[in-house]
Structures are given as structure tokens and as C-alpha cells.
TrEMBL record:
Record keywords, A-Z: Lipid metabolism, Membrane, Oxidoreductase, Transmembrane, Transmembrane helix
Main location (coarse class): membrane
Highest taxon in the source lineage: Eukaryota
Domain Cytochrome b5 heme-binding residues, every copy: 17-94
Name of the featured protein: Fatty acid desaturase 2
Sequence similarity: Belongs to the fatty acid desaturase type 1 family.
Lineage, opening ranks: Eukaryota, Metazoa, Spiralia, Lophotrochozoa, Mollusca
The keyword Lipid metabolism is assigned to this record: yes
Length: 436
């Protein structure tokens, strides 16, 4: 405990803060005993995880660590959030350290906030939502006019797949709180877009996606790379599973069967199962109710046109088409990058090691929902996507100063690297299993 105290503005003496060391913080790194540091202050989040809007898992991913940059990246309403943190306060860290890289990134963060790069252009997101609704209307009118023919079925499904893919990028904006200043309004629109327009659970998406952002490509912490029974990713898992003789797939062929059970099935099969299991396990009846409004709308419009089973077939065909688009775009920036256990890198180094960009351009920006700026999006996840390109030069400058690779590929090259990476990992597994 510190000695003495300091005077407040009214002359009373305030108690001195309690001091702890970073070694103390590191000792509290388990699920039931979790401390983390933010801006030099330590908080005990051991029993608070269940109250955290993002869930307990994302908090525990930083147990025993400096969570300053992660916390600032996820929260735009910092002063509001700090009110809930007061009761969790443990003490100040007396041996807090800040590397030159961390200092440079935090200075960039201050520049981003001071330059209003976290503020939205409302017209941009109005156009995004408007063109999605327009495509939904065009698809229905086209199928109504042409009647229940194979041609109208295919053409309508293609238009709807484009609308659904773009809705996927748009719900991502609301989910990251990057559209409205109010978190409440962002949450409402996220429920409406992902629930009513896409037919999925908002809370399921938050639970899964924010873990990915907190520790991208970190094994046991990022659910996007937790797929070992189907695919072995990176260098560590293939060798580990081979030596333990785990798994049942011919992983040396995973770069080939990726085209059969990867993009074609992610949305139609895997995500449907995950969504249903999540809302039922959590008894999340609000999310379930909003999701059901999508299916009521779908069968109300397409049931009379095609009949019940054909309307369901239309839905699954749209998901099949959309799944290819979604999977290639979301995985092109991560699967070819570093995938390993948590080595507790600082925020900037972790994001640059596990993400890469794709060349900018009007088509690439639209096609990927600006996820071609994956590096900048991961560094500043609440930044409106129309501003991401503005921060590229500063991010590149930090990378150059600290000799950190900044990777930017062509769209085709990024897609091809997914397959190359899968083949490399499969070869590692085969060599360790049969030739090592």
C-alpha cells in the first residue's frame, strides 16, 4: 500500500492507490482467478465475465496480460465503460513497461481519435442498406414476373446471393459498433440486419467474432481456426496431431477436399447447426424470435411462387452460393498467416502477424465489404470501413520503422494462398505421421 495520500480539490486527503507488479498480474491467469491490466491499472475480472456484454471468454483470453490496446480497440465509449470497472479495481502497476512499438501505436490511436476517423458518414451506410433491399426487391419481382421456371429460380437465387453477401458485410459494420454513435442503436440494427435480413443470431455472431478479433489465429482462443477434425491449419497443429495420431481425415489431401466441404458447406450446414445450438443452449428467445421473422418473410413471399419445398430449396441454394463468396473473402487474410499457440504478442504485432490486406479498388472494396483492409480493420475494429484506407500510410510507416512485414496481395493471389497454405499444412502432417 502506498504511503500517505494526496489532497483532493476540496482539501480532503484521498487514499493512496495500492500497487502491484506485473508478476502479480501474470499469476492471476486462470478462468476462476483472472486479472488484467488496462492503462497501468489492474482489474479483477474473475467473477465479472458473465456480466460482460462480449462474454467471459474474450476477457479470459487476456487474463494475466496487458489488455490496454485490446480494450481501447473494442470500446468507443470508454468513459461509460469505466464506471463499471471501478468495483473491479485492484491497484496500479508500479513496474509498467511500454515498448517503443506500443508507444508508436498508441500515438497513432490518439491521432485516429483526434482526427475523427472513428466517425461515420451516414450516407455511406444508407446506400449500403439501400442497395441490399433493392436487390431483394428486384429478385422477387423478377421471379414473380417470370414465374416458377428453372431460369427464374437460378437468376433470382444469384441476385439474392449477392444481396445476402452484402448484408453479411453490413451486419459486420453494426456488430462492430461502427455505424451509430449509440451502442444501443447499433445493437438494434445489428439484430435487424443479421436476424431479419440474414436469419442468424446477433449474440452468436458477437460471441464468435469478437474472440477472433481479440486473439486472431491463436489456437484455443480463435474459433475460426478451431477446425482440426476437418482441416489442420498452420505448422504446429498438423505436426502435433500427426504425432498423437489424432484425426481421421486424409489431411495430405485437404487442399483438394477444401473445395468440397469447405466453402460449399460452411453457411448451409455448419453455421446453421452452430446458430441453433447457441440460441437453444443460451435460451436466447429474443434472438430466436428475430431470426424466425426472416423465415416467415421468406416463405411468405417465395412459398406461393414455388411451393414450400421449392422455397426451401431456393433458400439453401442461395446459402450455397453465398457461402463460397463469404468463405473465400473471410479466410484469404487469415489462413495463410501465422497460426499458433498464444505467445502473448503485443496488439500491433499480433494483428500484423495474423492478417494481410488485398489490393484496394472499387470492385475489391465492394466485393469484400472493405475486408481487403483487414490489417487496419483488426487494428481499429470500430473504425467505419469507409475510413480504413486513410490510415494505411501511418500503419505502413510503423511497420517500416519496426521491421514488421506489411502484406498486401492481389485478390486472386490471396485466394490462391489459401490453397497453398492448406497443402503446406497437409504435407507437414503427412511427413510427421508417415515419414518422420
Amino acid at each position: 500500500m502506498g504511503k500517505g495520500g494526496k489532497a483532493s480539490e476540496n482539501g480532503s486527503v484521498l487514499p493512496s492507490p495500492k500497487y502491484v507488479t506485473m508478476d502479480d498480474v501474470r499469476e492471476h491467469n486462470t478462468k476462476g482467478d483472472s486479472w488484467l491490466m488496462i492503462d497501468g491499472k489492474v482489474y479483477d475480472i474473475s467473477r465479472w465475465g458473465g456480466k460482460h456484454p462480449g462474454g467471459a471468454k474474450i476477457l479470459n483470453h487476456y487474463a494475466g496480460e496487458d489488455a490496454t490496446d485490446a480494450w481501447k480497440s473494442f470500446h468507443n465509449d470508454k468513459e461509460f465503460v469505466k464506471k463499471f470497472m471501478k468495483s473491479l479495481y485492484v491497484g496500479d502497476v508500479k513496474d509498467k513497461e511500454e515498448s517503443e512499438l506500443q508507444a508508436d501505436f498508441r500515438e497513432l490511436r490518439r491521432h485516429v481519435e483526434d482526427s475523427d476517423l472513428l466517425k461515420t458518414k451516414p450516407w455511406f451506410f444508407c446506400l449500403q442498406l439501400g442497395h441490399i433491399i433493392l436487390m431483394e426487391v428486384v429478385a422477387y419481382c423478377l421471379m414473380s414476373y417470370m414465374g416458377a421456371t428453372p431460369l427464374s429460380f437460378v437468376l433470382g437465387a444469384m441476385i439474392l446471393a449477392v444481396a445476402q453477401s452484402q448484408a453479411g458485410w453490413t451486419q459486420h459494420d453494426y456488430g462492430h459498433m461502427s455505424v451509430f454513435p449509440s451502442h444501443k442503436i447499433n445493437h438494434i440494427f445489428h439484430h435487424l440486419v443479421i436476424g431479419h435480413i440474414k436469419g442468424a443470431s446477433s449474440h452468436w455472431w458477437n460471441f464468435r467474432h469478437f474472440q477472433h478479433h481479440a486473439k486472431p489465429n491463436v489456437l484455443s482462443k480463435d474459433p475460426d481456426v478451431d477446425v482440426p477434425y476437418l482441416f489442420l491449419l498452420g505448422d504446429y497443429v498438423p505436426k502435433s496431431w500427426a504425432l498423437k495420431k489424432k484425426g481421421f481425415m486424409p489431411y495430405q489431401l485437404q487442399h483438394s477436399y477444401w473445395f468440397l466441404i469447405g466453402p460449399p458447406l460452411l453457411l448451409p450446414i455448419y453455421f446453421h447447426i452452430e446458430n441453433v445450438m447457441f440460441v437453444l443452449k443460451r435460451k436466447d428467445w429474443v434472438d430466436l424470435g428475430v431470426t424466425l421473422t426472416f423465415f416467415v418473410r421468406w416463405f411468405y413471399f417465395y412459398g406461393p411462387l414455388f411451393g414450400g419445398w421449392e422455397a426451401f430449396g431456393l433458400y439453401m441454394f442461395v446459402r450455397f452460393l453465398e457461402s463460397h463468396w463469404f468463405t473465400w473473402v473471410t479466410q484469404m487474410s487469415h489462413i495463410p498467416m501465422k497460426i499458433a499457440r498464444d505467445d502473448k504478442q503485443d496488439w500491433f504485432s499480433l494483428q500484423l502477424a495474423t492478417t494481410c490486406n488485398v489490393e484496394p479498388g472499387y470492385f475489391n472494396d465492394w466485393f469484400t465489404g472493405h475486408l481487403n483492409y483487414q490489417v487496419e480493420h483488426h487494428l481499429f475494429p470500430t473504425m467505419p470501413r469507409h475510413n480504413l484506407h486513410k490510415i494505411v500510410p501511418q500503419v505502413r510507416a510503423i511497420c517500416k520503422k519496426h521491421n514488421i512485414p506489411y502484406r498486401c496481395k492481389s485478390l486472386y493471389g490471396a485466394f490462391a494462398d489459401i490453397v497453398h497454405s492448406l497443402k503446406k499444412s497437409g504435407d507437414i502432417w503427412y511427413e510427421a505421421r508417415y515419414e518422420g
